[in-house]
Structure formats: C-alpha cells, structure tokens
Design a protein that fits this description.
Elements (H helix, E strand, L loop, with lengths): L2 H12 L21 E5 L2 E4 L4 E4 L14 H11 L10 H13 L5 E5 L2 H16 L3 E5 L17 H4 L10 H4 L2 E4 L4 H11 L3 E6 L15 H12 L2 E5 L12 H4 L6 E5 L9 E5 L1 H4 L18 H13 L5 H22 L5 E5 L2 E5 L8 H6 L2 H12 L3 E2 L8 E2 L6 H17 L1
Parallel strand pairs: 3-13, 5-6, 5-7, 7-8, 8-9
Antiparallel strand pairs: 1-2, 2-3, 4-10, 9-10, 11-12, 12-14
Helix pairs in contact: 2-11, 3-11, 7-8, 12-15
The chain binds ligand KE4.
The site of ligand KE4 has 20 residues, from helix 4.
Length: about 425
C-alpha cells in the first residue's frame, strides 16, 4: 500500500482535513496530498519515493532551494548553543540591522513568529496610533488568519470557497472594508466617503493569494496618495514578496514608501519567523516603549534568526535576482508556448521568483478575471503535471515560486512535461 495513503488515513483521523494548513489538503484539485520526507534544492521526495520538481518552496521561504548548505550549517551551529533563551540575543540585533539596512522605509522593526502575527500586530498598531478602527483590504488578498482579515480573503479561503470565515464577530468584520484590487475609482470613492475614519489600508503590493495579480501602473502610488491625504496608515504586506521580487521587496521594486511593512517566509529561511516595522514614530508606540501591546515567547529566537540571516546573506550575491528573474521568464514563456501549440487557452503572470497560471485567453489583472479563469482545467493540468513529477500549487488561487535551485535543465524538463499535459487536456 502507498505510504502516502496510509499516512493520510492516519492524519485524517487526527487533524482537521488531515493537515496543519488547509491549502495542503488538495481539496480543490482533488485527490490526496503526498507526504514529503525529504527535500533538497528544487526537489521534494515523498513517502513513496517519488521525486517532484517543487514550484512552491514551502509557499515562499525556500528561495535558495531546500536544505541549502549554508542555512543548514547556520541552524546546526546555532542550535548546538541552545534553541531559545527568552532573553535578548545578538542575532536578533543583527537581523533588525539587516532588515532596516535593506528596506528603505524600515526605521524600526519587531520580530514575531509568523506572517499572521506580523499583520495582526501591524493593524493593531495602526489602530492604536491613529485612534481609528476601520481597516481597508482588497478582495482576494490574504494577510494570514487574523480575525479582521478573514473578510473576502484569498489563499486557502478562496480555495475552500469560504472567503469570509464563520467565527468572526460581525462587530469586528463590519470594521473591515474591502475594495477591488487595481480599481482606482473605487479606492478614491471609499476614501472620499470614509477616509477620515479609516485607521489603515493593508495591501499585498503584488497579489499572490488570488493566484498572481500585478499592480496596474500607478495603482500603488494612488493608494499612497489617498492614505497620506487622509492620515491613513499604509501597510504593505510583504510576507510573500519581501526579498522575493527583489532585494528589499515590492516597495523597492515600485519605489513606494509604506508607513508599515510586514515580512515573513524568506526572512526566516524556513523557520517560523515574521516581522513588522516602518516609521519610527509609529513603531515607538509598541510595548514596552509604547502602549500598543504585542509579545511572543519565541520571537527573535537564535535558531530562527540564524536561518533567516543565512538566507538573506546568500541573497546579497549580485546576480541572484537577475538569474531568478531569467528562470521565471523562461518557465512562463515556455508554458505559454506549450499551451498555444496545444490550442489551450492559457496565460501567465510573473514577477521575479513568482508566477501565476491562468486557464483563460485574457491577461489577468483583476480578482474578477482571476476568478473567471477555468479552475477545472487548472485541476486537470495540475494532476497531469504531478503524475510527471512536477508539483505546482494545489489550487488555482495560489501563486507559484521558483528558487535559485531551479536550473535550466529542470525548467526544460518542466516544459517537456507541460507539452504532454496540455495535449492531454
Ligand atoms: P503565515 O501566518 O502563514 O506565516 O503568513 C500569513 C500570510 C500573510 N501575508 C501574506 C501575503 C501571505 O501570503 C501569508 C501566507 N501565505 C500562504 C500562501 N498563500 C501560506 C500558505 C498556507 O496558508 O499554508
């Protein structure tokens, strides 16, 4: 019997959906998830000995590739001296210096243990700093599972078809206003009506949780101007894009300065890490220097800092991002050619290190267009690729990720598998 199947049977009895995070459960693509027992470079290896070229990389952190020697060595070396002290340690100072140095808008930063903690803390801080309560987010964006965000959210919630979660009190959900992404007029109208009662607007500068949607030229600048005009704290949620789409993230790529930013994934190198930071006058309000409370037992622990610092160090290599962008372009152009040759309606979106696959004949630049693409066709393609040892995100509403370990031969192997898969649709 398949070890994957046996493991999933046990898991289903013990964990909701048999998983510790919904998107892993294959519920939207059908079938059962496989269980990874090992990963190396761009490869995952499952419990039945199957090898996959992995285009998820743990949903973003593994930008160097899995089990990168310098990261493993840093974790091993640091762990030998103790795992968590509960008192300050030098590595969290080095991490703070590294983030502040690399992200122009970051004057102060606080380490936490997940992207969700980072975004939850950032909006509490924005509400505490402004004395206002309303939050603006965009349909399809996902900012972790904090109550205020689970309104028309993306990622696993879209995958499960429950974009607004039960369990969030309407008194709180009503404080979350949602906008269509890339819609200039809708944003102007909302701010004209409610601008002075809004504490904060949080946005994925590049949407990676409703598949992949890029900002229209000027859209992020438009949000920056609206927030400045109405005294609204602009939060860039860079948990996914931070240090992926470029050295400092999307805010450097698009040259926009948010008031606060959130990070996660890559800055932890695969260990549980998140961070929020930004303007000093705002961050000074965080306990214990200010009254806005936030805390965490394992925040800044040395092992997680070591994994993140080793990862961020490797990203300093001058041609790291140009190479990653070239790989991303090679993959997306090749997939579009393979689909066209097979007569399949298919388009892609991409930015350095991230891509989105859409079974539609139009370019996708809104949530509505992403939702209108053919998810059934995506599911068939997903399984046709999985059978050939290529693992794309198990949901039509997730972005894909590349790493430095995805070499040209692997991408060509992926494209050869895609030619077979597109023809089978
Ligand atoms: P975590 O709490 O999962 O570390 O981060 C939440 C989060 C916040 N902001 C953005 C922009 C994010 O993409 C995420 C988490 N991303 C998903 C992938 N779509 C994590 C995968 C999962 O939920 O298992």
């Amino acid at each position: 019997m398949s070890q994957n199947h046996a493991l999933f049977a046990r898991a289903l009895n013990l964990m909701p959906g048999g998983v510790n995070s919904p998107v892993r459960a294959f519920q939207s693509v059908g079938g059962e998830p496989f269980f990874a027992v090992r990963a190396e470079g761009a490869y995952l290896f499952d419990a039945d000995g199957q090898r996959y070229i992995d285009y998820i990389g743990s949903w973003g952190p593994m930008i160097l590739g899995h089990a990168h020697p310098s990261v493993i060595a840093a974790v091993t070396r640091t762990a030998a001296d103790g795992l968590s002290f509960g008192v300050p340690n030098p590595l969290e100072v080095t991490m703070a210096e590294t983030l502040v140095e690399r992200v122009p808008g970051l004057e102060m930063v606080r380490m936490v243990n997940s992207g969700t903690e980072a975004t939850m803390s950032a909006i509490r801080l924005a509400r505490g700093f402004t004395g206002r309560s309303r939050l603006v987010k965009f349909e399809g964006c996902y900012h972790g599972h904090g109550d205020s965000f689970l309104v028309k959210a993306g990622s696993g919630m879209l995958t499960l078809g429950v974009p607004t979660s039960p369990g969030v009190p309407s008194a709180l959900a009503d404080l979350t206003l949602t906008l269509p992404y890339n819609d200039f007029d809708a944003a102007s109208k909302l701010f004209a009506e409610h601008g002075d009662s809004i504490a904060t607007l949080i946005v994925e500068p590049i949407v990676g949780n409703a598949n992949l949607i890029l900002p229209r030229p000027g859209f992020l600048q438009h949000l920056r101007e609206l927030c400045t005009r109405h005294g609204v704290i602009l939060i860039f949620d860079e948990v996914m894009t931070g240090f992926r789409v470029g050295f400092g993230g999307a805010q450097v790529l698009y040259d926009i300065r948010p008031d606060l930013s959130t990070f996660g994934k890559i800055i932890g190198g695969g260990m549980p890490v998140g961070a929020y930071g930004g303007r000093r006058d705002i961050m000074q309000k965080v306990a214990p220097s200010g009254p806005v409370y936030q805390a965490g037992t394992l925040s800044g622990n040395p092992v997680a800092m070591a994994a993140g610092l080793a990862t961020l160090e490797a990203l300093k290599e001058p041609d790291f991002y140009p190479r990653l962008l070239a790989s991303t372009e090679r993959l997306c152009a090749g997939l579009e050619r393979a689909a066209a040759d097979a007569g399949v309606a298919f388009t892609t979106n991409h930015v350095c290190g991230m891509f989105g696959l859409f079974f539609t004949d139009q370019r996708v630049d809104t949530y509505a267009k992403a939702m209108a693409s053919d998810s059934r066709q995506f599911n068939r393609f997903f399984h046709a690729m999985l059978k050939q040892g290529v693992y794309f995100a198990p949901s039509a509403y997730e972005a894909g990720f590349l790493s430095a370990a995805h070499d040209p031969a692997m991408i060509d192997a992926t494209l050869a598998a895609a030619r077979v898969a597109f023809k089978s649709l």
